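Support reply, case 0932

Customer input (verbatim):
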Amino acid sequence: MPKYRFKAKNIENKILRGVYVARDDDDLREIISNQGFFLISFRKIPESAQLFSFLEKIKPDDLTAFCRQFSIMVTAGIEISDCIATLRDNTKVKKLKTILEDVHKSLMEGVMLSEAFAKYPKTFPQFFTNMIYIGELSGNMDFVLNRLADYYENDAKVKKKIKSSLTYPKILLLLSVAVVIVLSVFVMPMFSDLFSGFSAELPPLTVTINNITFFIRDNIGLLLAGGIIFYILLILFGRTKIGRQVIDYIKLKGPIIKNVTISSVTARFARGFGVLVESGMQIIDSIEIIGRLLGNVAVEKQFIIVTSEIKRGQPIAKSLETIDIFPTMLIEMVKVGEESGAIDKVLNKTANYFDDQVTNSIQKMTTFIEPMFILTVAGIIVVILLSVFLPMMGLMDAIEGSVG
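Our regenerated output:
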């Protein structure tokens, strides 16, 4: 449906501006009228302006703030539809504003809040919509929204830690590439010209480095373009089903990133499962939902077996043993929770523990990566310097011999 940018006001001269999704002009007027406003001006947003709207992303921080603010308003006794309208009017995120407008419109038509959110699975995943549904049925919407805010806040913290830990290695990688390009394009050609003037026989190392540097210098444009194209293709491949499976498998088996992946997946499972159970959802439904939201296809596939085992009457802890990456501690804590009848509380504490493990794993990973990059860059520089100094030493010996 088309989008409209509009301006409206009510009898109290309160101005309302925004972007609404409507079938046509008359539908837009009806939407505005149902809110007690009348249109002053409006225009349809061209489809070309909406072409790249898929590039807009709603960040985890935005979702956290949305849940937290929503919870505060619900606790204050404000109607759900009014909460959504207020959040829509106050958000600075255009994509979220458009979604909330459509959600508000659905509420006005009598659609349940969870159903309205379910139309946007990329922004509000099944975990979110099911939690909202529980809140609607139980009447504990403020509690559910607070738990959602806590969940997304912790999830965002872990992702930020992982992202920030990779910043320094990325900088080192770029620096190493820059050093190689500078030495290849500017430094080595100068010495090559010097050596050729003496018609001296060059050592094999110097000849090899010369050939490499000349190749880089003569094809720098193609190499840069090829690197960019390869990077884009790698990103596109990662978004395919097969590509995601390959990348997720590497994350689980890679010697450097393995521990970070296992800790983050375990923490996400424990926190998500705990939140769902605490909110009143059935165990089997909670397992099915959280099993699809772990961020790793390889692990998510194994949850099909977990679900079937629980349906056959197996204890949760016993069923989770089929997930080969889950640490023994998680299994034991789930077992304690089952036996004590406080599985939600045990899982929340377990999630906190594995959040700390993520931090520790990240520190170990960066401690390994940083010196590895430094040694690699240093090795490249040493080889290039040797390729320069070896023939220079040979020339100096030849000159001394001729003088003597």
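We compared this against your earlier run and they match. Two observations from our side: The mean pLDDT is 82. Residues 58 and 96 are 7 Å apart (CA to CA). Please reopen the case if you see a mismatch on your end.
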